[in-house]
Design goal:
globular, four-stranded mixed sheet, Ribosomal Protein S8, Chain: A, domain 1, 14 strands, alpha+beta, 3 domains
């Protein structure tokens, strides 16, 4: 499966100028056992402060992780990139689940194809999670882009004519803590002159970002049933069902990159070394023996390609039977998950198993 991913970069703490770096002989001293023991103890308690120094003089923040008494260290990734990448991945996966709907739905009510079961639940889960992570990435970036010495003039207009407007001056920490997401987008960012952000020119982008903020609040603060419609979580389900989340992803990327050029970089990542594939090119092999082969293969992921020979469509009885048995295998916990996609020259079925299922 080929997915678009965000290029995740490390957190650079400082960089030594090349001219200085050439004059100074940077070397790693021999560790002193007693000091090493103290440092290791601090790191295990989360009190250590490590960084990696490259040959180019770049110092990157390190983060540690303790697992089964073993301490591991790695380059600390930019969490804004992590959040954005998570949102992007989940939107793409949710779209792949949506592609499977035509194969698992039952058209039973006024030309509406009815869905049920875990695949639809997984689709909803991915959509909800992607919205939360997209909002996290935008707000985290806004907090990051606000200069340390910036002071926001918060103007509050009274409801009564008896009082004049009040101006409250907030520093960066106070902005992060006491202003809403909407206020940061609509008022704080436009006040930062060196960013030069044109709100009017980018009104469409801002509109979508504020929509993400609003629906995120609905998701986090689940409200009770709507009295008029008698429906639970109406706003959330309406948003998920009627919006192309990739458009909101593109708007968020554009917004961030306007404020800091090339902060978010998207890469095409081709999958390498797929563990197992089954290719069906003749009708006689499209039978239940195919599913026995799926059970036999000891891999956590298997892709079945079914070539479109003459007369083979998604309504073919043999294909329908295979897909029906996949649902049964899913219910019986023989497989963990599956996705179905119709391509121009073939059908593609991706099957997932857990480690326990391949033992």
């Amino acid at each position: 499966m080929n997915l678009k991913r965000v290029k995740i970069e490390g957190l650079q703490i400082f960089k030594i100028d090349k001219s200085v770096n050439q004059k100074v002989n940077l070397h790693t001293p021999e560790p002193i056992p007693s000091e090493t023991k103290k440092a290791r103890s601090k790191i295990k308690k989360g009190e250590g402060n490590l960084f990696f120094m490259s040959e180019d003089g770049e110092a990157h923040q390190a983060t540690t992780f303790t697992h089964k008494k073993k301490v591991y260290a790695g380059h600390a990734p930019n969490l804004i990139h992590i959040y954005f990448d998570q949102a992007l991945a989940q939107i793409q996966w949710s779209n792949k689940y949506a592609d499977s709907f035509q194969f698992i739905s039952k058209q039973e009510l006024a030309d509406i194809a009815l869905l049920q079961g875990r695949i639809f639940n997984k689709f909803i889960q991915l959509r909800v999670s992607s919205i939360v992570f997209l909002h996290l990435s935008i707000e985290a970036f806004i907090n990051y882009i606000i200069p340390d010495d910036f002071v926001y003039n918060k103007i509050e207009k009274p409801n009564s004519d008896k009082y004049s407007e009040q101006i409250t001056r907030l520093n960066k920490k106070q902005i992060e803590r006491w202003t809403t997401f909407q206020e940061k987008v609509e008022k704080v960012i436009p006040q930062i002159e060196k960013l030069g952000f044109d709100s009017k020119k980018n009104s469409k982008i801002i509109g979508r970002i504020l929509e993400i903020g609003k629906i995120r609040d609905e998701i986090v603060h689940l409200k009770s049933k709507d009295k008029e419609s008698m429906s639970y979580y109406k706003e959330i389900f309406n948003f998920i069902g009627s919006r192309d989340l990739m458009e909101y992803m593109h708007s968020a990327k554009k917004y961030i990159n306007i404020l800091e050029k090339d902060f978010i970089k998207i890469e095409n990542v081709a999958e390498k070394g797929h563990p197992a594939e089954i290719v069906i090119e003749e009708e006689k092999y499209l039978n239940l023996g195919l599913l026995f082969e799926v059970v036999r293969i000891r891999e956590t992921r298997i892709t079945i390609y079914i070539k479109k020979w003459k007369g083979l469509t998604k309504k073919d009885e043999k294909l329908i039977a295979i897909l029906g048995h996949l649902q049964l295998m899913d219910d019986m916990k023989i497989i963990y998950d599956y996705l179905i996609e119709e391509e121009k020259t073939r059908f593609k079925i991706e099957i997932f198993k857990t480690e326990d299922q391949v033992k």
